[in-house]
Amino acid sequence: MSTHIDILDEIDALRRSRNAVILAHFYQDPDIQDLADHIGDSLQLAQAARDTDADVILFCGVHFMAETAKILNPSRIVVLPDMAAGCSLADAAPGDEVRAWKAANPGHVLVSYVNCSAEVKAASDIICTSSNAEAVIASIPKDQGILFCPDRNLGAWLVKRTGREMKLWQGTCIVHETFSEKRLVQLKVRHPLAKVICHPECEPSLLAHADHIGSTSSLLKYATTTDDADTFIVGTEPGIIHQMEKAAPGRTFLPLPGMDESCACNECPYMRLNTLEKIRDCLRDLQPRLEMEAPLRLAALKPLERMMEISERASRS
Ligand code: 13P
Ligand code: SF4
Predict the structure, then answer these.
(1) pLDDT at residue 313 above 70?
(2) Phi/psi zone of residue 286: left (φ > 0), alpha (ψ -120 to 50 degrees), beta?
(3) Ligand 2 pocket test: which of 201, 219, 265, 272 has the largest number of ligand atoms within 8 Å of its C-beta?
(4) Considering every ligand atom, which ligand is closest to the CA of 62?
(5) pLDDT score, position 181
(6) Whose CA is nearest to atom 2 of ligand 1?
(7) What is the pLDDT of residue 265?
(8) Residues 104 and 79 in one domain
(9) Are 163 and 104 in a shared domain?
(10) Which of 73, 115, 236, 242 could be joined to 89 by an S-S link, Cβ 3.0–4.6 Å?
């Protein structure tokens, strides 16, 4: 049986021989984050995938992220360590139902969170991630109706932030909806000086307690750079705490537990399917591989390119 060190050596040798780039989301296990060439939020990883000249993109994340990489950079081989790494938000929005919703709401712009299938992206006018969603909504003319899919919590937060009315699809993230307000209040009572940071996929009752709300990269930046506190209650998947502790070793980061403290239900079960062994096998076999027919890819590319343009314009201004 290979040891941990053997597997890391094997991954390194394969990464070089395959000319592969390893991208990892902040919710991956710490040892996977540590071996990645790039770690980031959904937007940063999509940009890294689009811009790479490596022959192989190994995506340590979930299916919709690897699919997005393939849409943006189709000439690369894109592999995902475990094809079963899905997402409850993507599952909540079947393509045919989203197309029917759009058809029933003529004159509306369909904005879809990147946590959706290629089929839903293809039916959408613009894609967003949690780090550029406000800029995407702000780019839509004021008199235009908006449909937002699939995350109702991110959608409700955007309605509050932007003052825009939107019809919301009723999807949720199984991880963020497991956080309970009661547990959050208990932690606040025990740590009165701690700041609460939450991902916008959390329920509105949780977000009402937050001192800072944002994408994973925004939470990481705030928790490691603000001078306002040195203890933080982290309302998102606890994988991100690894980067927080690396960037600010003197600070305390308290993961928000799920309703039932005895389970690990605050961890994303899909993200955590990826393992070092699967990464090695995936680089060795170049399987499982993302493949897509050109018509679907081109239809899904259009709204993703709109997102990239809006996002890159907003970050320059
Ligand atoms: P970020 O884009 O903020 O990294 O979010 C991705 C995600 O799946 C959160 O659950
Ligand atoms: Fe999907 Fe939630 Fe997992 Fe993110 S944390 S990948 S939204 S199931």
Answers:
(1) yes
(2) left
(3) 201
(4) 2
(5) 93
(6) 42
(7) 81
(8) no
(9) yes
(10) 115
Instruction: Provide the CATH number for the domain around residue 135.
Output: 3.40.50.10800
Nearest to 300 by CA among 120, 128, 80, 101: 120
Range of the domain at 99: 89-172+297-316
State how many domains the chain has. 3
Pair 108, 180 in one domain: no
Is residue 96 located within the same domain as residue 166? yes
Question: What's the rounded Cα separation, in Å, for the pair 285 and 283?
Answer: 6
The residue whose CB lies within 8 Å of the most ligand 1 atoms, and thus the one to mutate among 62, 114, 130, 307, is 130
- pLDDT tens, residue by residue, 10-55: 999 999 999 999 999 999 999 999 999 999 999 999 999 999 999 9
Query: Are 159 and 16 found together in one domain?
Result: no
User: Which ligand minimizes its atom distance to the CA of 266?
Assistant: 2
Nearest to 170 by CA among 101, 227, 86, 258: 101
